[in-house]
Queue: 2 jobs
Job 1
Amino acid sequence: MEPKELLGKITDVVRECGEIILHAERGKSRIDEKAGHANFVTEYDKRIQQILRKSLLQILPEAVFVGEEEDIHASIAKGYAFIVDPIDGTTNFIKDYHMSVVSVGLTLDGEKYMGVVYNPYSDEMFTAVRGQGACLNDGPIHVSSQPLSNGLVLFGTAPYYEELAKRSFEMAYDYFKKALDVRRSGSAALDLCSVAAGRAELFFELSLSPWDYVAGALILEEAGGKVTTLEGGPLTLHAGCSVLATNGIA
Ligand code: IPD
Ligand code: CA
Ligand code: CA
């Protein structure tokens, strides 16, 4: 299938999932706790993941499917693999904070190939295909050319790992002193897209999982940005790692 056709089919599915987030009866939804501090899952996380799995595998039946809400240990080394977060920003969703996205990454032979991140609240569809640039809705996007001193720094608190909290806030304080200000959205996928779209200059988080960053990292790279672990190595796609994403200048 041509990349353009494939991307169109994936965005159709993702948009449908966004509609479910927008029209969710959140008050009636059951909320369960998962391992770690303040780590929740709602019926909507599970339901959207089921829809993504069914519809995405209809589009590419040969693909492996890795989703946040099920313990799937599929190998992504060969062929296509979808790496999916049905709702990135679940706590925001529970609180009706309007800052949650659907994130679908697609890898090919263990490398990032396509990324789709959709914010239904703002109707913003971020997309990228490897080697073909990044888009927001129908227009191309590019990272900003501002230095850190004139930049906004986004960060995630790695909330499910209490042992990382102190270091996260120390780093945020250091960046706060060097930049204009800091922000914490509650969605790592959206933060990566915000740097990609030139709305912020840097994002970091001490521990994330592949479904949080595969799609957003490709979108950022295709928008001209740079993403590594905090140590400067490549992001791992089969297991979690830290993330440092910049416009390449900050
Ligand atoms: C979380 C969000 C949050 C980040 C956490 C993630 P979830 O994902 O991306 O911004 O700080 O580390 O786990 O649990 O809402 O899908
Ligand atoms: Ca997530
Ligand atoms: Ca999630």
Job 2
Amino acid sequence: MSGSILSRARADLLALAGYSSARMEASSGALWLNANESPWPSPVDAGQGLHRYPDPQPAGLRARFADWLGVPAENLLVGRGSDEAIDLLTRAFCRAGVDAVITSPPTFGMYQVSARIQGARVVEVPLDAANGFAWPLDGILSAIDETTKLVWVCTPNNPTGTTVPRDAILDLARGLEDRALVVVDEAYAEFGDAQSLAGEAAKPGNLAVLRTLSKAHALAGARVGCVVADASVIALLRRLMAPYPLPTPSVVAAEAALAPAALAITASRIALVRAERARMAGALAKIPGVREVLPSQANFLTVRLDDGPRTYETLLACGIVVRDVSRHPSLAGCLRITIGTPEENDRVRSALAERARAAA
Ligand code: PMP
């Protein structure tokens, strides 16, 4: 039933009016004396008007996101990166000590961290490591019960780089109807071949999509991302989020990043990352001691080595910082290496080749 996923949100929050900030109550006027701001710009203000609180949901930025993703603005909430969206969704749906989320490890750690902070249970249905880290649809279906509120789907997945078929996600969402919200984290979608599910998430129902400007759009430091979901879910999240979540400089940077000129540059960089990913995957696979390079649709390669943790130390000694992901049982010996510039990638390749030569 459309819109009824809201019936699975926390009942105590549905009744909460939320804080009414000065900027929400009035957004136009000539004389601004309603928010106890300074009437003068800060002496360090570079013309951005930082003496004023920002719009809680800047219309211009939402319109840019809406255009970019091809969804109505009412289905979209902008916030401080996907991390904030993960936290908000967890708080909105999960009652402490009662409800649960499903994650499929090895995957992004914040799904379970946010759940634990909220006091929700984390039910882990691992990816099928013996089968190319395939997404465990059947396992997820059998793990779902009346306490399940969120099912986290990360595609392309961090840290495996693998993807989840679009039709399987849509089947799961349809099968669950109004029982649980299926949240698809598309942080790395720009680097892959799959079509975004944002358009589907904007329809009434139980599918949500997270997007971020931290990866392909090169704005990790600005902290901007969005959630696309049923309009009723968006309205609830708006009531729960911080009064002024987005700093003005971040809004300005994000709007510019989603303008056509910046998107064109971003597209050419994405093409370069994809080409470098293919080049590096081929080159790394030939280095002795490299057992496997997982096929990746993201801007990183996860590489299984004879001795991952020691290789990590060797790279660190050369000043190269990668991520040791070997603590996941199915990723024993694995390092996750972000695709950098062609020169940076060559340095990684040379350092690994040099280590293999020294060990021979
Ligand atoms: N989702 C995934 C899968 C990630 O890997 C990351 C960052 N490592 C995030 C979300 C968080 O992104 P943001 O900077 O938008 O909070």
